[in-house]
Amino acid sequence: MQQIWIQKAGTPEVLQMQDGPDPIPRSGEVRIRVEAVGVNFADILGRMGVYPDAPPLPYVPGYEVSGKVDLLGQGVPNLREGDAVFALTQFGGYSNVVCVPYKQVFKRLDWMNAQDAAALPLAYLTAYMMLVVMGSLRAGDKVLIHGAAGGVGLAALDLCRILGAETFGTASPGKHEYLLAHGLNHAIDYRNRDYERVVMDLTGGKGVNVVLDPLGGVHWPKNYRLLMPSGRLIHFGASSLAPGKRRSFLTMLRGMIMLPFYTPLKLMNDNKAIIGINLGHMWEHAGMMQPWMAQIIAWYDEALFRPKIDRTFSFAEAANAHHYLQDRRNIGKVLLLP
How many helices (H) and strands (E) does the chain have? Predict the structure, then answer.
């Protein structure tokens, strides 16, 4: 098999491709011949050495793959060799062969291609968990989506459109045309305008029901202020703590100093909720995600959405894929193809 390893913390050039023997599935696992791999910002943070959940270096990153089952371990129900599937991987996804617990594997529809399938697990499950499971989204709610043109951002936009929410999205100006055509109600140029003031102006000073915040740092208090009573601020990242391509302990320290402290009394008095999401901590509860993904697949089956694949890279171009994503040039998902 071929795998892409993070040998040491650093720029994208630390990614190295290596050959190794094919793994053998253990009891309860399936082996997948991989056709496409999702690239995510968590992979970049791990490469930089600032991702707290990453295993010790060196390791193989990667959270999501699609392909075909080619070998079953003992005790695997409802899957057969040759099945077209996609899966969540607890690291190790940057590989052309992976072994995955069967509860993290989902069957592809007959008309679902490998690239669409690889774009679904992390982004759409994260968006579903944020908006539906914990965000209690209802038709007519107002939702602020930061990074609206990214993989999770577009997934959230798709779900908001399906569920009838009004959307406000931050993105660089060159991405606004696509986002508006894709159903975003209000595009906000975060580089040249204060998004807090823009959202308050657009809502007549009332704010929004839900904020999806992958930024952290200085954005934590700004997004909290944007919530109307009964609003939910949902944290699912802290990308502002890693603005460059090498880790900066000073930047991380500044961000941690700005970490807000919400007391239960303050939340009660403000009638607001703070919610945290990390799909990477759901491995022991993978069964909970099966019905969530079943609903996502049903919406895909009804043609209510299709994931946006921005660009694909070969395994040999993995460093270029990280540069492309970290430079925020993408609209939608970036994939690696073995």
Answer: 11, 15
